[in-house]
Write a structure and sequence with these properties.
By secondary structure, the protein is mainly β.
Length: 153
């Protein structure tokens, strides 16, 4: 199964897409983005499949375990935490990640691996600044600058 999220900037410009591909052991995430400011950007899965003009409708990071934020946090990290994106001088970013904690299979209970296809969906979010992988509460990444609703092809 493959799922695609078309991403737009806060100004409404197309910003590329993110492909999520189910494997036997998790989800491969392939980001192909554009129209972003150069540098390091936080990149996360958010809990609700909605992108309003300010992207607040997407809710917080996808975190069914109620863990602390960041890969460097003691005791684990949010299910929706992903590595930072590096945006080139021309505004593009291309990155591939493997997320063993995720699945595209639909079910409603919170169990491992965690589904992106629950009743309210999920969204992929690009933030203004790079993630420090530990800030509590989350928020060191700044404003939400691009968002895409995750949906099945």
């Amino acid at each position: 199964m493959t799922v695609r999220a078309d991403v737009t900037t806060a100004a409404g410009e197309p910003a590329g897409h993110v492909i999520f591909k189910q494997t036997d052991h998790g989800v491969v995430v392939k980001a192909r983005l554009m129209n972003l400011s150069p540098g390091e950007h936080g990149f996360h899965i958010h809990e609700t499949g909605a992108c309003s003009p300010d992207f607040k409708a997407a809710g917080g990071h996808y975190d069914p375990l109620r863990a602390k934020h960041g890969f460097d946090s003691e005791g684990g990290y949010h299910v929706g935490d992903l590595p930072n994106l590096i945006v080139e001088a021309d505004g593009t970013a291309s990155a591939d990640f493997f997320a063993p904690q995720l699945t595209l299979e639909a079910y409603e209970d919170d169990r491992y691996p965690f589904t992106l296809a629950d009743a309210d969906g999920s969204a992929v979010m690009v933030h203004a600044k790079g993630d420090d992988y530990q800030a509590q509460p989350p928020g060191s990444t700044g404003e939400r600058v691009a968002c895409g609703v995750i949906f099945a092809d």
